[in-house]
Amino acid sequence: MSPRWSEAKIEEIQRANDIVEVVSSYLPLKRGGKDFKACCPFHAEKTPSFNVSPAKQIFKCFGCGKGGSVFQFVMARENVTFPEAVRMLADRAGIVLEEERREEKNPNEPDRSRVFKTVAWAMQVFERILAEPAGGRLGREYIARRGFTDETVKTYRLGLAPDAWDAMLKAAGKRGVSEQLLLAAGLVVPRSEGGGFYDRFRNRLIFPIFDSLNRPIAFGGRTLGDDPAKYLNSPETVVFNKSNNLYGLTLARDEMTASRRVIVMEGYTDCMMAHQAGLENVVATLGTSLTRSHVRLLKRFVDEVVLIYDGDAAGQNAADRAVQIFLEEELSVRIVTLPDDLDPCDFLLAGRKDEFAALVDAAPEALEFKWRLVRQQFDEAETVPGRRRAVEAMLEALAAQPAWGQNQDGLKRDLVLSRMAAVMGVEERSLRERLAELSKRARSQARREDEVGPGGREEEKSEPVADYGSLRGRTERLILQVLVAAPQRIGETAARLPAEMMKYELHRKLYGQMVEMHEQLAAKGIGLLWGRLEEEPVAELAAELVGLEEEDEKLAALLEDSLATLKRLNARDELEALRPNKAAAQSEEEDARMLRRVQELRQQSQGFLPSAGTGEELA
User: Fold this and answer.
1) pLDDT of 269-305, one tens digit each?
2) Separate counts of helices (H) and strands (E) for the chain
3) Model confidence over 456-509: pLDDT tens digits?
4) Which domains does the chain possess?
5) pTM of the complete model
6) Which end of the chain has fewer CB atoms within 10 angstroms, the N or the C?
7) DSSP code of 282?
8) Mind spelling out the 3-state secondary structure of 63-126?
């Protein structure tokens, strides 16, 4: 279960993180009247439709619909859950969070805040060693050979782990940092015999790894000796997961968001050299293949990804695996293979930046790259089964794209199928039939994944979204809109309208939270509401409702009319539900009781029922 904090603690964190200041740390805001405006960071646009209200402490994009408080902004921008956003903002404000569910916390799990501080301290130790005239010489020589400037070293906070088994342990002993904290931060390794620990990083140039809030969370180390393990990374810890982080993300984020494109490389030095050469929208994976989590993280910032891979078989296979993920996640991707067997760092160091940019612009898109691989496999396949596998591989790539069933992609699909038929000597009709089968299977699997929860358990079907073309949908929405504008009326409304009387799930969730907090909202304002809205759709709905500015007397009249309308609608629905049950009455007493209820409902629903066919047959 996710941690819970008191409403007072959530309110403290929200007050300490002014939404204008937080949003401004991600994108430039311009004053527009009483609010601030910007181009939305969550979708591509040229005219600003993203508004931030300092008075209400909320944001709202009138283009894509996202909205909420500072918590929802961080959730969307960093792709994190509500508890994680709370922790991030607490850390930003220097507020200590203590879990209220102490009995649920693993007593052996280290405190996250202390691990963060330990990693930050270790980074400073590594930096200090690299700067030492004698002790850091080998590291500085390697940096000079690779062509990195002092500014790049400073920007990426490079450091050095000396050629010793206990340098970090000794430094920690002097500082009073425990061995258990070093272990929790991934800085030491337990000895297999005799107990104790030894330093994980030895004789290595150190590359600190930062999270999306620019906090050091782990390290990568490049050997300066003859260790067969050329690169060594921190293990996963309570603050570090290599599949959820990318090297250089915080430095690249602004340019990624502006250009809507990111270049993904495989090495730390490749990323650093690209940045040094002026290519700022570049990140690198952390010693692991590109994962679905990486792709979903990138989707928050960009519309297109360019992958840089080696031209050997291993590199091409890695690119092929990544392409499949991008196709399934519906994010545009292109693949660059550099000539002359050079890695990006050496290629750029050789002064070939313009050539590199041209290769990026001319890079084949995902399907073209897949087609080239399939052609290569097809040329090498000497058996019928081998050729069949090549055809299947391409068709599966096409079927993995959900959007390919839409008309705008029909021409591209036809061209690919025509080329496949001509080159492979297969009838185009056969390819179309097989593609239709694979596409149907892919859609069925996607629906199954939507319906089945973790472990294969089927989840309850979600209720229908609000229909604002209907009177009920509009009425429920207007009630909520009035209560957002006049939170002092939530308490009196709760006494007349139980939450279950709202038909639509999102409405019930938002209304239920408002009722639960009605005293605080009446006393301190509606801005507190978003601190308890953990589900993004509910927070976005609440943000949409902001803006009804009427005098209190007018709001009271709107609320009264809407409550009366909803009462009549509910009576009508109950009346219609009773109709099939009339014939099933088991006794005269039950029949009489049902008749009395029908008469009551007919009076309550007056004005919504036609003159016949809505109850007379029950009387």
Assistant:
1) 999 999 999 999 999 998 777 888 888 888 877 889 9
2) 26, 15
3) 434 344 445 567 778 888 889 999 999 988 999 999 999 888 888 888 888 999
4) 7-104 (3.90.580.10), 112-240 (3.90.980.10), 244-363 (3.40.1360.10), 371-456 (no CATH), 471-616 (1.10.860)
5) 0.61
6) N
7) E
8) CCCCEECHHHHHHHHHCCCHHHHHHHHHHHHCCCCCCCCHHHCCCCCCCHHHHHHHHHHHHHHH
